[in-house]
Amino acid sequence: MSCVALTTSLTARPRALRAGRGSTSRGRVQVAPVRAAASSAVPALATKTNPLENINLLDVAGNPATPWNTDKTVVVSFLRNFG
Amino acid sequence: MFCWEHASELAKLKPQFDEAGVVLAVVAVGTPEGAQKFADALPFPAENLYVDPERNAYRALSFHGDLDGSEGIFFDPKVMEGVKRLFFTKVTGERIKERGLMTPDGREKMKAVMKNFEVIAPPQPRDAVQQGGTAVFKGNELVYLRADEATADHAPVAEVMAAAECPECTI
Fold it and tell me: Is the residue at B169 inside a domain?
């Protein structure tokens, strides 16, 4: 690596990180920045056909279940896991 | 543990959901046995609890952190992003602060929620980075969808209730 290239790599990558483009010092990994930016207030609100139409969950007894398969309004909260 | 806190908030809302004719369903990546343990320990109404062991619903809704097992262990961008969302984002700290969980009252609340806490591991190690979200359905239509950005980030209750047309439902 030439001196010019070395200088460039040492200065440009931290700037890229500060700009939120995300890379390691070796430049191998690109990770999208995760920002708070109004995330709590910007829901993806759009009426569309149920994408879970053909998906089955299991209830606590292990039986197939589709809680959204009803005429009622259904609020489904997807947790990460149980702990 | 923030999943426990969120579920306990939803459990408090259940009577109001019932009164308004709105169905509440809480889903997690796990097994039926894990769900039963969770329902007993929190406690949470078991009839409103479901599991998605293969994460099919999470994938269909494009929630963050969907690893399919084809990723490398180290330095894979998807793994790195998943771990980042799990532990290292500002979002988590902001949500904890917003919900007052670091105040004396908030700490007391968490202590009560976590009284019977036990780790209930998801089926696969890669499931650990899966993030959740919230969806509201009316009939067969999806009218609200929000993907959680990171650990402790959940849809604001008021927003969900507005989508469900249950504005009188408050914690």
Answer: no
The 8-class DSSP code of residue A44 comes to B
Task: Please report whether residue A6 resides in a domain.
Answer: yes
Q: Which of B72, B63, B70, B31 shows the shortest CA–CA distance to B49?
A: B31
Statement: the pTM of the whole predicted model exceeds 0.80: no
User: What is the residue range of B64's domain?
Assistant: 2-163
In a domain, A8, yes or no: yes
Tell me which chain B residues have a C-beta less than 8 angstroms from the C-beta of A57. 27, 50-52, 57
Q: How many domains does chain B have?
A: 1
Whether A15 shows a pLDDT value over 70: the answer reads no
**Contacts with B, A 18-47, CB within 8 Å:** 24, 28-32, 34-36, 39-41, 43-47
Residue-level pLDDT at B146: 93
SS3 assignment, position B73: coil
What residue numbers bound the domain in which A13 lies? 1-32
pLDDT for the residue numbered B109 = 86
Q: Does A59 touch chain B (CB under 8 A)?
A: yes
Q: Which residues of A touch B26 (CB under 8 A)?
A: 76-77, 79
Local confidence band at B34 (pLDDT 50, 70, 90 cut-offs): very high
Distance (Å, whole) CA B133 – CA A16: 30
How many structural domains is chain A composed of?
1
Nearest to B65 by CA among B78, B51, B52: B78
User: Both tokens of residue B152?
Assistant: 């402790």
Residue A39 lies in a domain: no
Each residue of B59-80: pLDDT tens digit? 999 999 888 878 777 778 888 8
